[in-house]
Amino acid sequence: MSFRDLRNFTEMMRALGYPRNISMENFRTPNFGLVSEVLLWLVKRYEPQTDIPSDVETEQDRVFFIKAVAQFMATKAHIKLNTKKLYQADGHAVKELLKITSVLYNAMMTKGMEGSKTGEEDTSKFKFDISSKIADLKAARQLASEITSKGAYLYDLLGKEVELRKLRTEAIARPLEINEMEKVMRIAIKETLAQVQKTKDLLNNVASDEANLEAKIEKRKLELERNRKRLQTLQSVRPAFMDEYEKVEEELQKQYDIYLEKFRNLAYLEQQLEDHHRMEQERFEEAENTLRLMQNKLKEEEKRLLKTESQPGEPEAALSDKPAWSLSPSERPGTGNDDSDIDIQEDDEPDSELEERRLSKPRTAMEVLMQGRPSKRVVGTMQGGDLDDDMEAAPALLGKCKTSSSKKQPSPDCCSAKPFLRMGVAGY
Known about the structure:
Shape: flat
Strand content: under 5%
Number of helices: 15
Oligomer: single chain
Number of domains: 4
Radius of gyration: 62 Å
Strand order of the largest sheet: 1-2
Helix content: over 70%
Number of strands: 2
């Protein structure tokens, strides 16, 4: 691509009336959209009624478009285009486009030199004249092709004239025999008559077939009309079961509404039941956690008391100074000998019996604590049984104990309940 070719192309397109301004920078890089638009416009200038697809979205469509334009220019304008350069859509395509634009530009300049150089009116008139002569141009091309084919056929016949002249001369020189000619003529006449008779038979058959078809058509028309009347009658008559059908349909609709309402209520109740179960479970877990914390506190208190009891060398006078409610069962007056006897007996007993007695004591204490409440529901895990009321009463008892200890006054309820709670905790 040279700068001069690109400049000439842009000036020619501007002179030909291309509606879009073409810059010399448009062909620095491949621009297939502009090339396809210019080619389609030039083809329309040659023949406005041509039908070339303008779809160039895919690669196959672009190849088909380039081939169609090249074939059109080769057959209509006798311009040979390089399809590869056109497909490149860069500076090399400008040289191929110049072949088309130069022809149109020269024709326009020749027309301007011969006559008028008018503006848009002359251009539109020129276009109109071209479009009006399209039919004559097609007829002339068809006649040219027929002349070519018939000329070739005539040339072949003239080539055979030497042989045909000899045969023609021999046929003319040969004498004619009347009997032979008469025989041939009779045979030809018979064949012609047979052909005529055959044609007449075919015509008669066609007439009979036509009559049969008309009869069938009339019969079908009558059946169609009868069926149409029957259909109208059936549409106008109300079926006997229609009333019952409507009643059943209404009842079914009512039943469906009832079913829908019950289904919604059931879903709502199931949701409420699920919420209730969840709240009960949360309440149970909370109570169980509270009781577990209380048991842990009681265990710690019992361990502390046992640790205090096990300290050696503590004088008995110090124990007598403590209030009776703060002493452990072994330290209280009148119970020391019994505990010592129990200890002596426990020493004599086997370890298994001691373990059973230790386990049985807390359970007996819990039974004493649970007396008077046989109808209460027991809730808990496999680790031990818990009472709903015990879970509520235990914090109250602990609160009383704390209040009494803060005031340095013993509380009988607290003192009476603490051993049982402690023994119950040991059972767990």
